[in-house]
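Q&A log
Question type: sequence-to-structure
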Amino acid sequence: MNPFDPAALLASWGTWAVLGAAAIVFLETSTIVGSFLPGDSLLFSLGLLLATSLTEFPLFLAILIVFAAAVLGAQVGYWVGRALGPRMFRRESARIFNPRTLDRGRRFFAEYGNRALILARFVPIIRALIPAFVGMSHYPRARFLVLNLVGGALWVAGLMGLGFGLGHVPLVAHNVEWVIIAVVVLTSLPFPIEFLRNYIKRRRAR
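Response status: OK
Response body:
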């Protein structure tokens, strides 16, 4: 079983694929170590599986289970960052972990706001780093929870729904690897596009 191959992971779990995927999503969104596990490709592959071989498992229930894991994972990352941040960023002389870094984080969220937290869901590794950094920046708890729910719903329901819908297309079934690569690339585009848009806006404002 290759932990970085979503199709192999899901196939090895059989009828437990939904719960296994939920566990991977939790690890991938809650810890920096787990951020290297498949995320977008796993959700898309799970949607394909639910449309083809795991048809006895309701799509809505599968989305609900994985959505809960995604939200819980991000919340854990947020609380870990909130608990460790003040201790890690006390030293003025530190190269990275210093109060200035936290100030830059606060300015970042003030500038990009809600869009950054939602779009980060669609970028591998970034979606694991953002909740912890948000917690370190003491972003309001209630606001983060709301954005976590919105981003988690769009990410999980969007990719699983897309996989489920395309699972009935023969062309997709015969080219799963290429389709997964295309999905990962396309879902990663909104975040850099948002940065580019804001960069151009700042240049024009000068």
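Response note: The two ends are 54 Å apart (CA to CA).
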